[in-house]
Design brief:
Blueprint (H helix, E strand, L loop, with lengths): L1 H20 L24 E9 L4 H20 L3 E10 L10 H11 L5 E4 L2 H4 L3 H12 L6 E4 L4 E2 L6 H31 L11 E3 L5 E3 L1 H16 L3 H10 L13 H9 L7 E3 L2 E2 L9 E2 L7 E3 L9 H13 L11 E4 L9 E2 L9 H14 L9 H7 L2 H8 L5 E3 L10 E6 L2 E4 L1 H5 L6 E7 L4 E6 L7 E3 L1 E3 L5 E3 L1 E3 L1 H11 L6 E11 L2 E7 L4 E11 L8 E4 L3 H6 L3 E10 L5 E3 H6 L15 E5 L5 H22 L1
Parallel strand pairs: 1-2, 1-3, 3-4
Antiparallel strand pairs: 4-5, 6-7, 8-11, 9-10, 12-29, 13-17, 14-28, 15-16, 15-23, 16-22, 17-18, 17-19, 18-24, 20-21, 23-24, 23-25, 25-26, 25-27
Helix pairs in contact: 5-6, 7-10, 7-18, 8-9
């Protein structure tokens, strides 16, 4: 079979060779006599445009720009076959993309409208420094119903010459590489300048610039900046402040009559208003798109404190920015977001939680919890060992010690059915219907955290409480419908406190505590059921037909693997023992020696930035004074 196949292939090759050895007969061949035939007929008046561009608005670039415009205007007007359509120009615009090049875009639109026959431009780099854009534009112009010719003066390239297509691609690639090289050089130069303390100081609202480019306070604008910071700390939103400034007739830095919340927010976020300077806060990952991204360590950045005279103090700047971070998604209700703590009762040391409030850390919650124990003779727990010993008689103590050597198994080892269950997963929190039935008709509850006892508590609250959550509702038939609520602001410090991974699911079984008409739920954070999702790759080997499971450690690994991949959920538990010591558990059953006060209001521990009530009062007074001064100036 194989030999017959080889013979057939050999015969086909011989026929092909024989075919090319014979000359064709009766053919009339016309050899090309010209290399390039122009599409425009001799004597035709061409409608000609020129495109000029410089990449910066510097003085020397302005001279180059004006020279380009004058040269092409004179050339077109002095050529009998040319009729000037327009000189299209982009001054101070980069050539690596078309997004902001209005002159180029208008020229292309006029070409599509059939107004132009020929475009003259200085060089490929003036036209575009992006290979993709250059070739796409030229192809688009060439494929129009009335094709448009482009001539590049420096390279002596004419797009109507078929022999120039390869050269066009090469020159466009060289122009792009030149732009990439210049971008690398500029980035290198910029990083070395800032490392040596040589900073760029672009214009900033609240400041003027002297002849050396140094920032000098503008007294009138500085009052506006101070008012913005103080009003924001005092309780106004960015939109409130923008509306006030607009109503006073104060103009923005760009001389606009209307202020926006974004403009106010940018002023608050800018560290230069407190005298500091951070260089390289953003960077451009792609020199072609020129889109900026926040610098989170991808590039070198430098901070210089006290670089220039401040308009607001660092304390005021920090207070405003901490508030902006903490209160980004939290409920309004206080001028300054704050942590509070229950100072007495069965929930002593518990801190009410705003589930979406960002900015507070696990240390902040721990400090709040510790503060109430330090205030009361350094007690360490609401029901401490000393409290228990004082209330346990000999009979109870003997009964407890009868369980010596035993452990009470963890609740999560048993079924969750019919239990009070709390679930934390994917940045969300959810309580089951059993939890809701504990509080009858209460749709709003408050979550509290005790970092010392590592417990979460849930107690009823009013709907207008700043920390209230709507954990569910009853339908028309009276059945509870649980809600799944976002809690990313709180979950991050909670995971830090408990050393959890945010991508896992955590489930807890809680128990209720009740005295007379007051009730709360308690969830032990040290006793979770943990569900981890693993990405599993199933490989098969020629030598071993049994499947081999391999855990894929990153999403990038998943993309690179071509084998079958599936998810597998693994349930685990905390690794610190089978359960609780039975003696300890019996002693903890002793009733709390004191007033329970489950609904006792929490007292404020501190604001998010350590500002005192006295300082807040002064800030309010100063904000009103500045507003009056600005109002009088506006009149």
């Amino acid at each position: 079979m194989g030999r017959n196949k080889d013979k057939g292939l050999k015969k086909k090759k011989e026929l092909i060779r024989d075919r090319y050895q014979h000359e064709a007969e009766d053919l009339e061949i016309h050899v090309a006599t010209t290399k390039y035939v122009a599409r425009h007929q001799p004597g035709t008046i061409l409608r000609v445009a020129a495109y000029c561009r410089v990449s910066t608005a510097e003085e020397e670039q302005t001279s180059s720009f004006e020279l380009q415009v004058k040269t092409y205007r004179d050339l077109i007007n002095s050529t009998p076959e040319y009729k000037l359509v327009n000189i299209y120009a982009d001054e101070g615009i980069s050539g690596t993309n078309l997004e902001h090049r209005e002159g180029m875009q208008q020229m292309i639109e006029d070409c599509k409208a059939g107004k132009i026959d020929l475009i003259l431009t200085k060089s490929m780099s003036r036209f575009a420094r992006n290979v993709k854009d250059t070739l796409e534009i030229l192809q688009e112009l060439n494929n129009l119903p009335r094709p448009v010719e482009v001539k590049f003066e420096t390279e002596h390239i004419d797009t109507f010459d078929p022999g120039n297509q390869v050269l066009l691609t090469m020159m466009a690639s060289m122009a792009e590489q030149e732009s990439r090289t210049k971008s690398d050089i500029m980035n290198w130069s910029f990083e070395n300048r800032i490392k040596n303390g040589i900073f760029l100081t672009p214009p900033l609202y609240g400041y003027d610039q002297d002849e050396n480019g140094n920032l000098v306070i503008n007294p009138q604008e500085a009052k506006v900046v101070q008012f913005i910071y103080l009003a924001y700390i005092q309780g106004c939103s960015c939109q409130d402040i923008a509306d006030i400034l607009t109503s006073l007739g104060i103009r923005t830095y760009n001389n606009k009559e209307e202020w926006s919340a974004g403009t106010v927010r940018n002023i608050i976020r800018n560290e230069r208003h407190c005298g500091d300077l951070i260089a390289h806060k953003t960077y451009t990952p792609d020199f072609l798109t020129h889109k900026h991204k926040p610098n989170h360590g991808e590039r070198t950045w430098v901070k210089k404190e006290d670089h220039h005279e401040p308009i607001v103090s660092k304390r005021i700047w920090y207070a405003a920015n901490r508030k902006m971070t903490v209160a980004a998604v939290s409920k309004s209700g206080a001028p300054m977001p704050a942590l509070s703590v229950v100072d007495q009762g069965i929930l002593k040391g518990f801190v009410p939680v705003d589930r979406n409030m960002r900015g507070f850390t696990s240390d902040d919650y721990s400090d709040a919890t510790k503060s109430v124990y330090e205030e009361n003779n350094h007690q360490t727990e609401a029901a401490s060992d000393a409290d228990i010993d004082a209330t346990v008689d000999n009979a109870d103590r003997e009964r407890a010690w009868a369980f010596s050597g035993y452990q009470i198994a963890r609740t999560v080892y048993f079924s969750f059915a019919g239990k009070n269950v709390l679930t934390l997963q994917d940045g969300k929190i959810r309580f089951n219907t059993t939890c809701m039935k504990e509080f009858d008709d209460m749709e709003y509850v408050e979550i509290l955290l005790n970092t010392k006892q590592k417990q979460l508590a849930v107690r009823p609250c009013s709907s207008d409480s700043p920390t209230a959550i709507h954990w569910g509702r009853k339908d028309d038939e009276g059945h509870w419908k649980p809600s799944t609520m976002s809690c990313r602001g709180f979950l991050k410090p909670l995971c830090d406190l408990m050393n959890w991974a945010m991508e896992n699911r955590y489930r807890f079984i809680g128990y209720s505590m009740k005295e007379e008409q007051e009730k709360c739920l308690i969830f032990d954070l040290t006793d979770p059921e943990i569900t981890t999702t693993l990405l599993i790759e199933e490989n098969s080997s020629d030598d071993d037909q049994d499947s081999m499971l391999q855990i894929i450690t990153s999403k990038q690994d998943q993309i690179e693997k071509e084998a079958s991949i599936h998810e597998e959920k693994v349930v685990s538990f905390a690794d610190d023992g089978f359960g609780q010591d039975a003696v300890e558990a019996e002693l903890e059953k002793v009733p709390f020696d004191g007033d329970w006060e489950i609904l006792r209001p929490a007292k404020r521990y501190r604001y998010c930035c350590d500002i005192t009530d006295e300082e807040l009062s002064e800030i309010e007074t100063d904000a009103r004074r500045l507003m009056n001064e600005l109002s009088q100036k506006a009149v």
